[in-house]
Write a sequence for this structure.
């Protein structure tokens, strides 16, 4: 069945791979980017099945216009993918408040703004699927990426609440949690600061690892795109889906450690209850 998609951040990376896969599968797509001229080749190749529109995800008016484009061009919207985002590396001490705001604006508020622009349409349709791109850094605190992790953890909480509300009107929600994929995210898209010596064991190490890792990540963007297509076709999709063997390993390790810590401190935790 042909679906009507809107994907943010289609100019490169996983967003670009997913946009190409959606169109190759015969679906219709509103492809967005801050500079839509970067999507001209998609329009040339796929004609009327794609609309390339400008979208800065923190601009509520542009978000509303992008959703309206899906309505005007295709009659509605079946799948919204909030993919746009970025994350730099630096220590918390050396990351300015302005940089925190910018990363959180894009990665969290951008997701909220575009989601809210689509909710009323999907509620009226009584159908739809909202797919949020989080990260392994949305489940495991990533040293050197405090603004990014803060935003992605918030996306996880926002989306869990969203899922519990939207199920009442027939709309599905899935959070995608990629590990390392061979995209530009780890290259020119990222500002890497090794920072001061006091934090080198975690922040400097993260920056060096990122440089060495680039081009050697285990994740294949094209395979990731095919998985997202499968998820979008499911009657009962997962709320959360890790992508990549590294993501599964890291999230599993963190969750087991979290449960062990909960049990270790159980008696202290429950000691706050009124006596029975």
């Amino acid at each position: 069945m042909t679906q009507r998609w809107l994907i943010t951040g289609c100019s490169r990376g996983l967003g670009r791979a997913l946009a190409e896969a959606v169109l190759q599968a015969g679906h219709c797509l509103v492809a967005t980017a801050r500079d839509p001229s970067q999507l001209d080749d998609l329009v040339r190749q796929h004609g009327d099945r794609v609309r390339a529109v400008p979208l800065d995800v923190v601009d509520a008016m542009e978000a509303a216009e992008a959703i309206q484009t899906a309505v005007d061009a295709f009659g509605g919207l079946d799948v919204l993918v909030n993919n746009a985002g970025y994350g730099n590396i630096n220590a918390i001490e050396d990351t300015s408040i302005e940089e925190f705001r910018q990363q959180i604006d894009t990665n969290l508020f951008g997701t909220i703004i575009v989601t809210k622009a689509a909710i009323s349409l999907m509620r009226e349709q009584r159908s739809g699927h909202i797919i949020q791109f989080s990260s392994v850094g949305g489940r495991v605190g990533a040293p050197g990426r405090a603004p990014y992790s803060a935003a992605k953890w918030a996306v996880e909480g926002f989306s869990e609440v969203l899922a519990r509300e939207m199920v009442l009107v027939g709309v599905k929600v899935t959070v995608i949690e990629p590990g390392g994929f061979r995209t530009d995210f780890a290259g020119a898209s990222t500002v890497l600061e090794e920072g001061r010596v006091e934090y080198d064991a975690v922040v400097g190490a993260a920056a060096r690892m990122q440089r060495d890792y680039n081009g050697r990540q285990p994740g294949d963007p094209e395979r990731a795109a095919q998985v997202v297509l499968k998820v979008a076709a499911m009657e009962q999709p997962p709320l959360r889906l890790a992508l990549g063997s590294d993501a599964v390993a890291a999230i599993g390790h963190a969750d087991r450690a979290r449960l062990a810590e909960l049990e270790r401190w159980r008696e202290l935790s429950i000691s706050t209850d009124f006596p029975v």
